[in-house]
Structures are given as C-alpha cells and as structure tokens.
Design a protein that fits this description.
- This protein has about 600 residues and is an alpha+beta fold.
- About 20% of the residues lie in helices and about 25% in strands.
- It contains 12 helices and 27 strands.
- It has helices spanning about 20-35, 70-85, 90-100, 155-160, 170, 250-270, 300-305, 370-380, 380-400, 405-420, 435-440, 505-510; strands at about 5-10, 15-20, 40, 105-110, 110-120, 125-130, 135-140, 145, 160-165, 190, 190-195, 235, 275-280, 285-290, 290-295, 315-320, 320-325, 335-340, 345-350, 360-365, 440-445, 470, 475-495, 530-540, 545-550, 560-575, 580-590.
- The strands form 8 sheets. Strands 21, 22, 23, 24, 25, 26 and 27 form a 7-stranded antiparallel beta sheet that branches. The chain has a 5-stranded parallel beta sheet with strand order 4-3-2-8-20, with helices on one face. A 4-stranded mixed beta sheet has the order 1-7-6-5.
- Strand 2, helix 1 (about 20-35) and strand 3 form a beta-alpha-beta unit.
- Helix 1 (about 20-35) runs parallel beside helix 9 (about 380-400) and helix 9 (about 380-400) crosses helix 10 (about 405-420).
- It is globular.
- The N and C termini lie far apart (about 65 Å).
Length: about 600
C-alpha cells in the first residue's frame, strides 16, 4: 500500500510578512500598495492578533489631543465604524480579513505557521511554513522578510541578533532600568467579556476554577461591574518564568483558572453590581506583551523616548506611557503596573526596524529594536500599526531599488518619509511636500485662508486647526495659467481624530472595540466631520466642466483619485458630510 506524501508548494514573492496582527497586516498592505508582490503568513484563522476576536484587547496608541494614528490604521478604523455600529468582534474580524484578502498583490496564508528558514550567507533565502487546514508545506522565497510575529520566530532560526528580558540600568543609563539584567518580561493575559442581560443570571463555576471568596486576591485590581469599561487586563502571569514563550500552554491553563475564578467571585461573593450580567466570552488564546526583541542598527531606549525621539530617520511615532508591568502579574499584591510618563508624541527611527546582522530581515510590532523600558511604550497596537506601515513601505523601496533595508536608510530615507506622509502617516515635526503643480496654480475657495490646504500639515496641532471649513456645494478650485496635464488628485478630510462627534462613552471613543456590553449598548454613529459625498471636476480646453471622480458614500480620511487628463482648472466640490453643516478639509492637491 502506497503512503501518500504531504503536499509541498513552492512560491516566490517580493516581500514575505510573517504574522498577521495589525502590524503585519498593515506592513503587507503598504508594501502591496507600492507594487511589491506580498505573501502574508498568519498562524491563526483570523487577522488582528491581540485585537482580534480571539484575544480582544483594545487598540491603544499615542495619548494627547489630535495625536491619533492615521494612515492605513485610520482607514481600517473608519471602515469598522461604518460597517460595525454595534461593535461586534466577528464583524471586526471580517473587516480585517477583507482589507488583506481583497488587496491586490497580497497572497494570504491563514492557519499557516512558520517553522523554518534557509539562509544564503547573511540573507534569508526562504521560509518553510505548515498550513494546518490543507496539510500543506509552503516554501516561500522572498527578497525581503518582515517578522511581525511578535515572538520574533525568525530570530532563532536565522541567527538574527535578539534580546529578551530587562536590561540593567547601567547598560543604557535608563533610570527605570533594573539593577541587574534578567530574562523577566511582562506577562500574558486571557481576557473575559461580560454582557448585561437585563434579568438575573446565575453562574456555576467548574470545580477546576480557582476560588476567591474574599477581596484579598484583588487588591488594586478593579473588578466591579459598575465600571463596565474595565477589561481586567491585570489577569496576567508568566513574566517571572525563565521563558514564558515556551510555557504558554501551561500559563493558559492557569489563566483560565484565574479568569473563571474571578467571574465566580464577581457573581457569587459580595456585591459587584453583577446580578444581571452573564459571562459572554472567555479567551483561550493568551495575549502577549513581550518576548524576543530584535537588535537593529539602533536600539531605542528610555532616554530616546524622553528626548522625544527626534531622529533624522523618524518613520513612526509613539506616545503611550512607559507602562511597565510587574513580571509576577496577578501574583503581585501591590500595583500590577507602573506608568512612567513620556512625551507624546515621540519619534521612532527606521534603524530600529531592520536587523543588525541579517541583511534582508525587517520587523514591526512589539519585537522591534528597543530596550525593555522603551518597549513598555512602543508595544501598544496603534503604535505597532504605524511601525508596520513604515516597515512595509520601506520594504517596497528595498525591492524597487534592489537594495537592503539598510540601503533604504542610507540612500532613500527622505523618499521613505515623503511616501509615508503622502499615505497620510503623520511624522511629527515634518511637513508634507506639496506638488509643484499645486504650488503653481491659483487657489480659490469660500474660506478665510485656502492656502492652508497645501501647508503640508494635515491635522490640528496645538491651537492651529491646519484645515479649512467650506460650505457644502461650493468649490475649492485650482486654476492654471495654461492647460496642464493632471495625473491625480489627493484630498484629506477631517475624520475627527478625537472622536468627539461619536456618541458613546469617552473610553469607547478612544479605543476601537468594547470589553463589556451594557443592556443599552450601541449603536454608535460615524464621525460627522467626514465628507460623505463629493466630486472632482476639470475644466477642459473647451471651457466645459467635466466630472472625473464622484462618490456618494465616502468613509475615508485620505482619498486618492486618478485623473489623467489635460485641464485648465481642477475643482473639488463637497456635497454632503456624515452630519456636519460644512466640509472640513486638511489638504487638497494635484499632480
């Protein structure tokens, strides 16, 4: 009897991304949109990593007014707000899936685990991955590899330099460092979610759950259902293990005993305002905060963060506090974490996104080249997302020019920064360069100072709004001295970065998805500032206005429109918003 061999498939691409959390997704999308052929390998059935329905951590990022991350992340967030007004996690999964699966130039491999790699000197030649659902081995060759796995799976199998644990204070002069270096990390969490049913609900725990008959296990740990926005993130263990990565299954078992024991305590011991609440969901996949961190050409430190990260090669930014969790987690009876203040925003350099010793290896997410102290801020998902867009865009330039990521830093960093800003990624202390065609035209609009539309600043900063409000059905017009060829138009609308026009609790406005659901939960409205319908027209050589682009259901902040026509003038006419009386616009230019 013949034994059937497992299938083997070989493929080649320009960029291989390992890991489909938000950083990996956005790295893949950005590389693909800039012409690279991309393979995205994700070991789970859904995308989003810690933000997905499997773990359900909300997406945090830079603190401060008008500091919300834009680019591809804001595109995804706005689509979710449009499609998912009740904030259902499974619809959120579908939004993330759609953004990757139907992006041209991306081949998506779900349920596919990277298990090995082959090397060609100091370069990664290929990776080997196992797809559980099809019982197939994939051998994937690429020019550039981006490890967004969080756990840095390519580090031990390629020989890439990496770190794990906490640095001694003396190594980098970090004031929040530790006296001696160790391998301790921040721990893992399994989340739970509850729902108010509007009627009394009982709970019977399993025998294997922990018992917590009093409050002694929950000192400094909020767990009352009157605080419905608490997600019990402090159910965290494993950071004090020698290597929590290899102990994940054991730690998951203990986290489930803690989580169900907590719910038993909330329901059956004392008054936690939980009579009508039921346990709606339990996470069986632990969310991780820290494991291996790659070593790049620059290791970003606490001191870099405190100095605002004003790097010459700044390509992303952060602004979450240096939120350092005690490695003992739940078993530490003191406060579970310490928030060390940091400036917001601060910059993150491109040199922290590629390997020091593997020529074609990049990384994005919580595994970038940072110390433990800096990681305590850079690890949050919105920050990881803009890092992912920088890495993916950088990888596309490496492919375009046939160079290494280090070569992009040395020879094309200004192009990378300009490309990111064109793609609506804010780079603090930088201004986007407006096209020569825009600057040569005469601009008219029914507003106080229309020249703000090509200032290169596309969000409010401090007291300056940096945008205009124009009446609906009025035109923002560029007129040329002679007929010009216009390739495209670009517009950036106000997407309400502070979510002040979204009618919901302030914390739900700040983050993307909820942790618990009250009986009166939702729906939530779309930001009213976004322009919903508009058209772009050109004035032909025959002096006739011709519509070259029109939409009645826009939900994007950044809109790019091909025109490819000769024109004497170009005008943008906003027709309706999602609620506001006027159109709020940060940028409109042409090339």
């Amino acid at each position: 009897m013949a034994i059937e061999a497992l299938r083997e498939k070989s493929l080649t691409c320009d960029v291989a991304v390992i890991g489909g959390g938000l950083a990996g997704m956005i790295a893949a999308i950005s590389a693909a949109r800039h012409g690279a052929k991309v393979a995205l390998v994700q070991d789970r059935p859904v995308l989003g990593g810690n933000a997905s329905s499997e773990i359900r951590m909300w997406v945090g990022g830079c603190r401060g007014k008008n500091n919300r991350e834009t680019g591809i992340l804001e595109e995804i967030m706005l689509e979710n707000m449009y499609r998912n007004e009740y904030k259902n996690f499974h619809i959120w999964d579908s939004v993330l899936y759609e953004k990757v699966r139907y992006e041209e130039n991306i081949d998506l491999y779900l349920n596919c685990t990277c298990c090995g790699a082959t090397m060609d000197g100091s370069k990664v030649k290929s990776i080997r991955a196992w797809q559980l659902t099809t019982y197939t081995w994939f051998n994937i060759e690429a020019k550039v590899f981006i490890d967004c796995s969080g756990d840095s799976i390519l580090a031990p199998i390629t020989g890439a330099e990496y770190r794990c644990g906490r640095e001694a204070e003396s190594e980098f002069g970090e004031s929040i460092g530790h006296e001696f270096a160790d391998r301790k990390t921040m721990g893992l969490s399994c989340m739970i979610q509850a729902r108010d049913t509007g009627r009394p609900v009982k709970f019977t725990p399993p025998d294997w759950a922990h018992k917590y008959p009093d409050e002694s296990a929950f000192v400094n740990r909020d767990h009352d259902l009157s605080e419905v926005l608490s997600n019990n993130w402090w159910m965290e263990i494993g950071g004090d293990h020698e290597d929590s990565l290899y102990d994940t299954e054991e730690l998951r078992d203990e986290l489930l005993r803690i989580a169900i024991g907590l719910w038993d305590h909330i329901k059956n011991y004392g008054d936690h305002h939980a009579e009508n609440w039921e346990l709606d969901w339990i996470g069986f996949l632990p969310g991780k905060r820290e494991s291996r961190r790659y070593v790049g050409d620059h290791i970003m430190t606490q001191n870099d963060v405190l100095a605002e990260g004003r790097f010459d090669d700044l390509v992303a930014y952060g602004g979450w506090p240096m939120d350092d969790h005690d490695p003992r987690g739940f078993y530490n009876n003191d406060h579970p974490n310490v928030n060390h203040p940091c400036p917001y925003p601060y910059g993150i350099p491109f040199r922290s996104l590629y390997s020091k010793n593997i020529d074609n290896l990049m990384f994005a997410g919580r595994n970038i080249s940072v110390t433990h102290a800096a990681l305590s801020s850079t690890r949050v998902m919105a920050t990881c997302s803009v890092i992912g867009q920088a890495a993916g865009t950088g990888a596309s330039l490496a492919v375009k020019y046939g160079i290494s990521p280090r070569g992009v830093y040395r020879d094309h960093i200004r192009e990378l920064q300009a490309t990111l800003m064109n793609d609506d990624c804010w780079l603090p202390w930088h201004e986007r360069e407006t096209s020569e065609l825009t600057k040569s035209a005469h601009l008219t609009a029914e507003c106080a100072d229309p020249s703000i539309l090509y200032s290169g600043i596309e969000r409010p900063i401090g007291k300056d709004y940096n945008g205009v409000s124009v009446p609906l059905n009025s035109a923002v017009t560029y007129t040329f001295d002679s007929v010009k060829h216009v390739e495209s138009a670009r517009v950036v609308f106000d997407s309400d970065l502070n979510r002040e026009t979204v009618k919901s609790d302030s914390l739900i406005r700040e983050f993307n998805m909820p942790c618990n659901r009250t009986f009166e939960f939702g729906p939530f409205n779309f930001p009213t500032t976004v322009v919903r319908s508009f058209k772009v027209e050109i004035l032909t050589s025959d002096n006739e206005w011709k519509t070259v682009f029109e939409t009645a259901n826009n939900r994007r902040r950044l809109v790019l429109m091909p025109i490819n026509a000769d024109a004497k003038a170009v005008r943008l006419i906003p027709l309706a918003t999602w609620g506001d009386d006027e159109a709020k616009i940060f940028s409109f230019d042409i090339q």
